[in-house]
Amino acid sequence: MKKIIWIVAVVVIGLVIMAVIKDKPAPVTGVGEMIKIGAVLPLTGSGAILGEPMRNGIDLALKDKKNVEIIFEDSKALPTDGVTAYYRLIAGGVDAVISAYSGVSVPLISLAVKNKIPLIMSLVAADNVTNEYSYRYYATPKSYVLPAFTDVNSPLKNLTNIAVLFRNDEYGKSVSDFVLETASTNNKKVVISESYKVNETDFSTHLTKIKAANPEAVLFIDGTATEGVGILKKAFELKIPAVFIETSAIFSDLAVQAQAPSMTFYTTAFSFSLPNDNIQFKKLYTDTYKVAPNFAAAFGYDIANWITSCIGNTDGLQSCLNKTKSVDGITGQINNIAKHEINPPMFLVKVN
Fold it and tell me: Nearest 5 degrees, angle CA 186-CA 229-CA 288?
């Protein structure tokens, strides 16, 4: 019933806003010397810990470019707010839209095709999200999961029984499904799999069940710092002896790591999150915003530079983006780009 209500709400919002913008001219074929970019980011609420740095990264990339206009809209990390924000940007005549978070971006995928406006998604690890007009500049479920099973420093190499705790949304289920698949092919036994609601704060029931199943490792898939910190704090309180491995990247942010209890755990991280990576950019960001950047800032920076590299391309923005076969940004060197997937490598990092 909730899903039906949500779908109806999205359709109603779309019809109302499209009625206002029905006279909007069709997009031009060439990019021209001026480009307008829209961004649907979580700028308030629990998602702002990644949305705000991503906005800052975009701004840093564009600060010396005079031929670009950027418009930010706040999704609050909510699907309905994201759709409303998207239609406002379309009404404003944007040439491309940047979006963040799976729950927000997935409903925009079909709208990108309908409006023939490129959608560049980041912080999106849900499965099967790219199409003719949709691009992912981020990790896939495979990127998140494989380091836990294949990295030379992974504790799973010597363990058999594992538990899975995942966020119950498109992103969490996509990563969880790949965990189950990878566990099977690596002779690991999943003794229990538990899901929790988006933005849940009390993990007592889930972790009590997991403790009773006596796993050697717990792979958890969180979507916000509040969720991730809450999971580890409750696990520490319950004295669960299993090793905890985050198969997402929330704890690759040093500020989030500082909120974790005094326990050893692992996280999956991009190279940008490693201490000696991109020192010059990190200094520029810190000097500008008086706080250290996290990986979301790096993705915002690289995506903005990628889009603006197409300014002046007479074939059109979509064609220009489609021709990209490799990128070299602060998120890393990415080669052999195919099917609109721009996926930087990830690593397993031990914390504490």
Answer: 110
Structure-block tokens of residue 323: 């021709």
Residue 244 has, within 13 A of its CA and on its CB side, a CA count of 30
Closest CA to 180 of 164, 169, 196, 160: 164
Residue 296, amino acid:
A
Assess contact for 96 and 35: CB atoms under 8 A.
yes
Distance between CA atoms of residues 133 and 115, nearest Å: 9
Residues 60 and 303: their CA atoms lie apart, in Å, by 11
Tens-place pLDDT, residues 26-84: 444 455 578 999 999 999 998 999 999 999 999 999 999 989 999 999 999 999 999 99
DSSP one-letter code for 292? -
- Angle between helices 141-150 and 170-185 in degrees, nearest 10: 40
Tell me the average pLDDT across 136-147: 95
From 140, 212, 202, select the one nearest 177 (Cα to Cα).
Answer: 140
Which pTM does this prediction carry? Answer: 0.83
CA terminus-to-terminus distance, the chain = 44
CA dist 111 → 82, 266, 280 (Å): 12, 37, 38
The tokens describing 343, both together, are: 């996926």
Q: Which residues, 6 or more positions from 290, have their beta carbon under 8 angstroms from its beta carbon?
A: none
Whole-angstrom distance, CA of residue 225 vs CA of residue 118: 29
Cα within 13 Å of Cα(66), Cβ side = 0
Per-residue pLDDT for 1 more than 80?
no
Mean of the per-residue pLDDT values of the chain: 91
Residue that wins the pLDDT comparison between 100 and 7: 100
For residues 324-332, average pLDDT: 93
Look at strands 134-137 and 119-122 and give their pairing: parallel
Nearest in space to 260 (alpha carbons), one of 220, 288, 312: 220
Element (H, E) at 128: none
Instruction: Report which DSSP code applies to 271.
Output: G
